[in-house]
């Protein structure tokens, strides 16, 4: 009894397993005189057992008893482990189960062996075998078997407790390492919310040492407006819940900081004894979120609301004022002379100047107006309370006058002026359209000498309900990918070879089907949406051209029609340059078609613009030539590559002598000016032959092909009939 008590004490004190098993072996040998105790441990990976060294057997025998298979008829121990029951060998020399181990056992002087499996009491898991060897043939008594089973049970207890203890020690070490080295603050409360302990990260995040926080309630470290939320989260965790939330802590200095906290219960044997907390400082993340929210709504340079917020406020003002039967106006401002200052003095000075402008405008406009910076040096103003147009004009005059006073920036006096476009709500335009109207008016003001204002003018009949709906649908068409480009070949008149393609926009309306460009293009020009549509067409044409190049198709220049509004925008060349860079299309594969009326307006400015385009490799052709009034002197100086005969001259060229004369005159004049001539709308062989006879260079029309989606161009012949 004394020995058993000592063994249980050794197990409880977690003494080394080898020592405990050695003591169990000695206990068995006391109970079983003349026995040599063998204790073998089970390896579940190899499904074998191996003798635990203990000094009772020779080195040779100990080695031979390693890796013994757990299988039937493998000695006494292998069989006992296999059958999970007592196996008795009274005479090793005669027992067939000892085949393979008989010689080494007999050489060791062993004659008999009794073996029982060592199994865990809880689930019957095999742990090993406990056996006694004898130097003479002998069979066990019932008392011997009882003692043998008792020793095996003690060995099972020792092995299981030792294994559990090491698992516990391993788990504790891992937990402690995770606890101490976790980058987040880890801490625990008692059930009343008083802090017990925390890791190093908790002290670092909160700014309190253990001596300062231990024994204090969590609310002492939480900003007052967030204490109720924190208490509710703690109560949820104390009731068994798991909750993650954001709160605000307070440093000992009183400075607040943002925290993300997770609380969950500490459970011991099914009972909640406290609450764990894991916290991380998210002050930097919250600051980034605040900055992102700011940049999503405000201009980073001036702090003014951006376009998104401005449109929202304009939309709200339109809704309210229309319901009240009152008017709203928009003023679009563009600073004259800002670009040279920005380029000459640098962006820092330029940004400071923009801030000064914003401050002066805000002070002048007061709180009843909304001021926004859209891009670069362009601002827009919402005038929500307009009684008459003269009121808007007075505001514009006051702004232009205020901007004439010099701005002091870094010791320099900066002089600016502005061009202002004015647009009044017509009762049906959407917010973006009203801004576009003011933008269009601003461009007119700038073209008339700058430092002035101009009202948006729209000479047309009142829009029908159908046109108003179509306007709205057109605004959504690009977002919904309803627009697409078709391409019509431009053919060498003599050889029939491809010389280019013209991009023509098509609109597949989800309810109305195909809508003619003759319907929606004029509508887009009226509303200013033509700028956005034109930008989309230009980009898509360049993308398609580049895609055909990558796919190995014939590569020819693509011609894109450019509207008056788009061509006259100050940043047009920069837009073309950016699109070419983004799509990768070489400039020499892009041709822009512009009507002669556009080119003749502000001819000197047009010539400069075309030179800038030519530097990009982009060519410009004169579209619908002969339908407008052109100054031959300016036409001579324009760096254009070709002229395009209007379709009205081609339609009856075979029957109308006047048209014959006009076409021949244009071809002759163009050739003298080193310009190629394109005839569009060629539908018959007779028209083709007549134009070739007159020296026309390039032909386009249904005679060769209708406009096709880009994927179908590959189906066309490489060369149309040669007429040489």
Automatic annotation (TrEMBL):
Every GGDEF domain range: 326-458
Statement: the UniProt record of this protein carries the keyword Oxidoreductase: no
Residues making up the signal peptide according to the UniProt record: none
Enzyme Commission (EC) number: 3.1.4.52
Native organism taxonomy: Bacteria, Pseudomonadati, Pseudomonadota, Gammaproteobacteria, Oceanospirillales
Name the record gives this protein: cyclic-guanylate-specific phosphodiesterase
Species annotation: Halovibrio salipaludis
Matching InterPro entries: Biofilm_reg_signaling, Diguanyl_cyclase/Pdiesterase, EAL_dom, EAL_sf, GAF, GAF-like_dom_sf, GGDEF_dom, Nucleotide_cyclase
Domain EAL: 467-721
Family matches, as NCBIfam families: GGDEF (TIGR00254), sensory_box (TIGR00229)
